[in-house]
Structure formats: C-alpha cells, structure tokens
Amino acid sequence: MQKKIRLTMSQALVKYLCNQFTEIDGEQVPLFAGLFGIFGHGNVTCLSEALEQVQDQLPTYRGQNEQSMALAAIGFAKAKRRRQIMIAATSIGPGAANMVTAAGTAMANRLPVLLLAGDTFANRLPDPVLQQVEHFDDPTVTVNDAFKPVVRYWDRITQPEQIITSLPQAIATMLDPADCGPAFVGLAQDTQEKVFDYPEAFFEPKVWKIPRPRPDRGALSAAVKLLMTAKRPLIISGGGVRYSLAEEQLAEFAAKRGIPVVETIAGKGALTHDHPVHAGPIGIVGSTSANALAKDADVILAIGTRLQDFTTGSWTAFSQEAEFISINTSRFDATKHRALSVVGDALETLIDIDAELDNWIAPPERMAHAKDLFAKWNEILDEHQKPTNALVPSYAQVIGVMNKVARPEDTLIGAAGGTPGEITKGWRVKNPNTFDCEFGFSCMGYEIAAGWGCAIAQQGPGTAGGTPIVMLGDGTYMMMNSDIYSAVLTGHKMIVVVCDNGGYAVINRLQQSKGVPGFNNLLTDCNIQYPENPPHVDFAKHAEAMGAATRNVESLAELETALQWAQENDRTTVISIVSDAWKWVPGDADWDVGVPESSNFEKVREARRAQDEIRARQRVGV
Questions:
Q1: Are 71 and 450 in contact (CB under 8 A)?
Q2: Is the pLDDT of residue 621 over 80?
Q3: What's the CA gap between 182 and 166, in Å, rounded?
Q4: What is the pLDDT of residue 551?
Q5: What is the DSSP secondary structure assignment for residue 102, as one 8-state letter?
Q6: Backbone dihedral region for residue 5 (phi beyond 0: left; psi -120 to 50: alpha; all else: beta)
Q7: Strands lying side by side in the sheet with 85-90
Q8: Would you kindly state where each structural domain of the chain is located, as residue ranges?
Q9: How many CB atoms lie within 10 A of CB 217?
Q10: Alpha-helical segments (H) within 386-528
Q11: Where is the Thiamine pyrophosphate enzyme central domain positioned along the sequence (predicted)?
Q12: Using CA atoms, how far apart are residues 560 and 542, in angstroms rounded to an integer?
C-alpha cells in the first residue's frame, strides 16, 4: 500500500521544492537556492509557517518591493545561466500585481523564476476579501490573471492535491531550453491551510537534468551545405550560447573555420573582448566593426538569438541577399526571417555542424578584414574613453575607469536608459560570463535588484565568484533603489555607480533626434517649480541612509580611487558621479521608431523623411 504523508498544501509545496536538485559543475545542489518573500494576509499565516521550518534548506530573504525581489531572482538566474532558480513569493492584490513587470522581464529574456502569489478564497465564502479586485461578470478572475500574458506556465491551486501534477510541470517548463521562462502558481488562501494525505513518493529527491535537443539530420545537412557556399560568413552569438554553456565550443569552431563572431546584448560575454575571433557587438548599440561585417555578410549563422530589433537594426543591418542559418532550441526563434531553421542545443549543434564541414574554412581574408575593423573600433573606444579636460565626464569615460579597476571575475550589470548602449559598446569583457545587460525588456529598476541576486549567486558553483558592479543613471536609481538596503541586510556585497546626468538623458536624446523639443525628460525640461535650478538628490547620502558605504566624486581620478576603495570594502558601496547628458559613443545602425506623419515642427518633418528612408531599407520577413 502506498505510504502517505499528511500535510497542509503549503507544507507540501515547500517540502516538494526542498527535494528538487540539479547539478552544476558536477556538484549536486538544490534546484531552488532560496526564496525572496514579502508576507501579507494572503500568505503569511500558511506559507510562512511552512518556510520558517526549512530556513537551513531553503533560505528566505526579506524583500523591500515585490517587483524588485522578482528582478533579483532574474539576476540570480542569469548569473547561474539558468541552472538554478530562485522563488519570489507575495501576498494577493497589489503585492502580486507588483510582480507582473518582473514576470515580463523574465519572459522577454527567457529566464526561469518561480512566482508564488496568494489568491482569493477558493470557497468564495468571505468574498470580497481584502485586496480582491472584483469582476462583475466573472467571479473567477483575480489580479493573478494578469500574469497569464507574461509567464510560460500559469496555474491556480484551489485543491491541495493539485500541486502533485502542477509543480512538476512548472519546473519542467522553467528548465526546458525551448520554453524557458517564468512560472506562476496562485495559491488560494483557504487551500493553503487544508491538509491532504500526499503520496510519500511525491517528496522523493529528484535531480533535474537540462535537456540538450539534437538537431534534425536533414536540417543539419542543409545548414552545412549553405554554410559551405559562404564567402563572407558571420556568426551572431546570442544569449543561448551562454545558457547552453557553449562558449568554448563556439570559440573553437569559429577559430577553426575562420568565421568572425559578433555578439548580441544578451550574448556579450561569451567571448572575452580580446579573443582572436571576437569582432564586437552588433546592432543599434553595437560597434562599427560588427555592423560593417553584418552589412556585407552573405551567410549569417545566428546562434541562440531571438534577433531583436536592436540586434538587426530593425532589419536594416543586413543586405537583402544575405541568408540566415538560425540555431535555436526554440522553433519560434529559429524560424524567424526566412532563416534555414536548425532546432537544437547550441553546443550539440555546433559539434554536429563542425563534424560535417570536413576541411572547409572561410576565405582567410574574411577574418583578416574582421581583425582590421575591430582594431579600428578599439581605437574609437580608446578615443572616447580617454580622460579630457571636460568639466563633466561622459558615460564612456566613466566606463573606461570602471573597466580598468574591475577584476576579471567581477560582473558588470546594467539595464535601461543610456547605460545599455554605452556598456555594450564600451565594456571590454575580461572573463567569460561576467556581463549582464538586461535589454530584452529594458526594465528600469532591474540593475540594483539584479546586483543583489547576482551577489547571492556568486556564493555557489557555476559563477565567476567576483563582485557585481552595477552601473545605472539617476533616473533609474530614483525608480528602484531599495535593494541597496536588502544587500546590506543580508551581507551580499555589490558596488553601485550612479551616473547623475539630470534626468532621463538617453530618451531625451531620442526625442530630440526625431525633432521634438526637449520635454519632460531632463529635469530642466520638466514641469517643476525651479527648472533653472532643480533640487538635487544626494545619492550618496541617500544610499548611506540605507547602510551602504558611499562617496560622491567629481572627477575620473576620484572615481578610480573610490572604486579601488570600494573593492576593499566588506559591504555594499555606492559611488555617485555627475556625468554628461549629451556625449555618447557613436553608433551607425538604424532603428525603426514611430515618427509623426504630420507635425508643426520642421525638424519632426525632416525626421519623418529620414525614417521613411530607413524603412525602405528593411528586409522583408516575418
């Protein structure tokens, strides 16, 4: 007779999660490394009761904001390259709704996070409960339904036995390379308290293996045949290369076959900056070298990339005649833009392609041309990053100093605003997998939260083991900064550099470049009482109030000294520096954005004509 264990649903859920394992670098570790939680009436009496008893197995970290703690879980997942997962747990109503943005960030970036939210009563007897949003024509709808468009797996537990089938499916989804993304499970309040006789077998320890799907032989042969026709081939390395752990295989393949490698934002860091086959980042925030190689490429091997518009220059970066081979675990991504689709794991597929190429190599002049272009790109970076007599340093100069002081094992983290373009172009990666720029969702507020999650991840196997270095602007800092306090509370160190340029500088740049006068972006262009002298936030003092070590600096020399001091500190350190809102490293790729068809501004009409020219150069595809 099957043995049973009598537990509440919450106790059973926690017990099950504690018995899930994975392997990283040959070491068996818990699949769920911890839980970020904010408790409310929808989860504090039942879920917290279960979590309190397993603190040594599944540590709970107190969050300050539901969105930011889920973003921290995303930063953790990135650092672990999807091999280990964090949980974010919240109450019902606004707490759950706060996590929707983070769910969208995980969804866009194909990253695993388990989201647990309290829900209304399954029996509906006390309806409407506190924080319940009522739909007059559908009593089954709650705030948690808002997660459905932004997660890969969604379920609502209304009976305690439902977790027996639901939780394994949620985990399988999060670990599937093709479907990887966030999983959401809503927990009805009265269901959390109910007991059930669970099968003992449900709690048996399980070691999960991440599958490596092999490509179809026919598709593989077709890809090899097409690649062998190439005179000017190019490899685009995406985030899937890093998640497949295929960095070394890619480097060996590219060197052996003489094909230059350019990188997407998510793919940056698979190769070091100075690797012989590396030719720079591609696209709108890319390098002149990578974009020149893309423009004249005849066959493009796109590996593990969803070909976002910032990579493709809104599909203007390539010639109309260029042909794509797309290697991806996801059929959806592999079939984009008329590509020859090869659905499979990046590492395994590269091995198989290499085996079938025989003695083929690209014409030697292709790699020589790439090296020449990349050398010129490095000269451009040097020119923009070198110190000058300017009173206010540029982003590029700040990045140059940060890059100089950073240790090879330190991880740079950035996200929305002006930072992504500048760090993607200007950060010279010293060690593989030490770069995290969230630009799939361009989520302001990701940076500091992700720094906390990355710092937690650095304690275990499979990561570089250094210190997260977070770079962000003043606008993003004002949006979400409370995880400075979180990191101080838990003792997880990061270094935060705040570039204070007086508002939303990069979106102001886009606005004015399309002919619209500066409006509501820089503080001096906003509806405020004293636009000529807006109140200044002392970011160092603000962070100091949350327990961080802090400094305000005014020059590049002071920044270098402060960063060296920060490296020696034993706690989270925040450095603030005033930076230039108008100086940027140049880019040479186009971007398709909406520009008014009619306007009273002549500059807008000029921008519209230029935008029409951009659209005329776009490749036709799907």
A1: yes
A2: no
A3: 14
A4: 98
A5: H
A6: beta
A7: 60-62, 32-37, 85-90, 114-119, 183-188, 153-157
A8: 4-207, 217-376, 386-578
A9: 10
A10: 395-405, 419-426, 446-457, 474-479, 483-490, 505-513
A11: 221-350
A12: 21
Query: Using CA atoms, how far apart are residues 114 and 151, in angstroms rounded to an integer?
Result: 10
CA angle 11, 42, 77 (to 5 degrees): 70
| Cβ count within 10 A of residue 319 | 15
| Fold: same for 4-207 and 386-578 | yes
Structure confidence by residue, pLDDT tens digits, 243-292: 999 999 999 999 999 999 999 999 999 999 999 999 999 999 999 999 99
Amino acid (one-letter) located at 294: A
Residues 63-121 have pLDDT tens digits of 999 999 999 999 999 999 999 999 999 999 999 999 999 999 999 999 999 999 999 99
Tell me the backbone φ, ψ of residue 423, rounded to 5 degrees: -80, -35
Partner residues linked to 470 by β-bridges: 413, 496
3-state secondary structure of 33: strand
Across the beta sheet with 573-578, the strand order is 435-437, 411-414, 468-473, 495-500, 573-578, 549-553
* DSSP sequence for 239-294: HHHHHTT-HHHHHHHHHHHT--EEE-TTTTTSS-TT-TTEEEE-STTS-HHHHHHH
Q: How far apart are CA 163 and CA 203, in angstroms?
A: 12
pLDDT in the model for residue 465? 82
pLDDT exceeds cutoff 90 at 2: no
Each residue of 137-190: pLDDT tens digit?
999 999 999 999 999 999 999 999 999 999 999 999 999 999 999 999 999 999
**DSSP conformation letters of 368-414:** HHHHHHHHHHHHHHHHHHS--S-SS--HHHHHHHHHHHS-TT-EEEE
> How far apart are the C-alpha atoms of 611 and 609, rounded to whole Å?
5
Q: Which of 3.40.50.300, 1.10.10.10, 3.40.50.360, 3.40.50.1220 is the CATH number of 217-376?
A: 3.40.50.1220
* Topology (CATH) of 4-207: Rossmann fold (3.40.50)
Name the DSSP class of 317.
Answer: S
Cis preceding linkage at 128, omega within 30: yes
Across 1-18, average pLDDT: 96
Q: How many CB atoms lie within 10 A of CB 344?
A: 25
CA distances in angstroms from 368 to 273, 351, 362, listed in the order given = 17, 25, 11
At 505, is the pLDDT very low, low, confident or very high (cuts 50, 70, 90)? very high
> What is the CATH number that goes with domain 386-578?
3.40.50.970
Mean pLDDT of 591-600: 94
Count the helix, strand and coil residues of the chain and give each as a percent rounded to the nearest 5: 40, 20, 40
Q: Is pLDDT at 622 greater than 60 in this prediction?
A: no
